[in-house]
Amino acid sequence: MWKLTRNEEEDYFPSSPRKDWSIGLMKFVLVLGIFMMGVVLGLCLSSTFTHDFNSRTELFFPSTMYSTNCDKDCLSIKSFLGPKHLKHSMTDDELFWRASLVPQMEEYPFNRVPKVAFLFLTRGPLPFVPLWERFFKGHKGLYSIYVHTFPDYKLNVNEDSAFYGRLIPSEEVYWGSITLVDAEKRLLANALLDFSNERFVLLSESCIPIYNFPTVYEYLINSAHSFVDSYDVDTPQGRGRYNRRMAPHIQLYQWRKGSEWFELKRELAVSIVADNNYYYIFRKYCKPSCYPDEHYIPTYLNMFHGALNANRSITWVDWSRGGPHPASYGAPSITAGFIKALRNNGTFCMYNSKSSSICFLFARKFAPSALAPLMNLTSEVMGF
Ligand SMILES: *[C@@H]1O[C@H](CO)[C@@H](O)[C@H](O)[C@H]1NC(C)=O
Ligand SMILES: *[C@@H]1O[C@H](CO)[C@@H](O)[C@H](O)[C@H]1NC(C)=O
Ligand SMILES: *[C@@H]1O[C@H](CO)[C@@H](O)[C@H](O)[C@H]1NC(C)=O
């Protein structure tokens, strides 16, 4: 067996004099290091204690790690209570989740003036913007506007318009498909992000107001019920659209039909945005020739919030001519007598369990040519 001799060992393990020398050097370096660290630490402390907190944290955490656009109030309550700008990159799932958050405290830590959110579901152009602008004029702080268009549509309005910057991130919508319900939920959800919005009205580009803003505001804010058309009718266009595969979750007796132009109070808007289960049943089984926009919300409210619904719409429409689309009124139809009859034709309806002569606040459908004669009638007939 090969073995190290004493001499050979010494070649591998330095002799004691060399060991002593190196230990001395190490001690010196260690003392020098401690001394240097002391100097550096002393310098740091003396400089940082004369500076504020920010520069001290900056010494240990580079400022780039913390660069934000906020000055002092990085969790501003103001931006939480109502986003100033409507642009965002949230997906529908993220948006609906966020919009369905409900405060558990009864009182607000700010003076909450309830607002009416006007949700415009449109392909693109809004021909009645001048009429609506006159309607909204002087009532800032009591309303908010949200517009859903075809994606990438640019709404061409002046900076001082009530509609300026009110486009929400929109998706493609196909008539009669679930994408219409998606767009409605998207409008509701964007509007729910503003905690002051209390009532939510869905309108189209062919809708007009037939009363002035104070009347509309009082009527909606003080109503115990929401206004969603919801009825049961045993026809191919009613019960005939029910799909047996929706059972047992949705039964035929619960099935309802109604115009999509709803008015909802906040509590119901949250409930609809938060619902995934029934929405998916409609998405899966309400097709073809079913039209989810005419059934999903009326049926869902009937199942869970019936007592809070007036079961009637506040948007007047004329189906008397038959066919798949209601009558559309252009310039020749617009007279003071016609608009007065829409406001009150002698019939009454229930409002807060009492009889009221005001049954409709809005009306459809109107062709763009109706704008000029309507602008002529606002002060004489509509009171704005
Ligand atoms: C609306 O219909 C529901 C049933 O879905 C009913 O409970 C409610 O009382 C009705 N609302 C009014 C104001 O009659
Ligand atoms: C008044 O309007 C309502 C709703 O459009 C309609 O049902 C009713 O028949 C009208 N009444 C008269 C007297 O025209
Ligand atoms: C506006 O009203 C005036 C007077 O009532 C009338 O002469 C004029 O033709 C109307 N204009 C339109 C666009 O209807």
TrEMBL record:
Please give the start and end residues of each transmembrane region. 28-49
This protein's GO CC annotations: membrane
Q: Does the keyword Cell cycle apply?
A: no
InterPro entries in the record, alphabetically? BC10-like (IPR044174), Glyco_trans_14 (IPR003406)
Cite the entry's keywords alphabetically.
Glycoprotein, Glycosyltransferase, Membrane, Transferase, Transmembrane, Transmembrane helix
What is the membrane topology here?
Single-pass type II membrane protein
Q: Which residues form a coiled coil?
A: none
Reply yes or no: does the keyword Glycosyltransferase apply. Answer: yes
Q: Name one Pfam family in it.
A: Branch
Cellular localisation = Membrane
**Subcellular location, principal:** membrane
Q: Write one Gene Ontology MF term.
A: glycosyltransferase activity
State the name under which the record lists this protein: Core-2/I-branching beta-1,6-N-acetylglucosaminyltransferase family protein
Protein source organism = Zingiber officinale
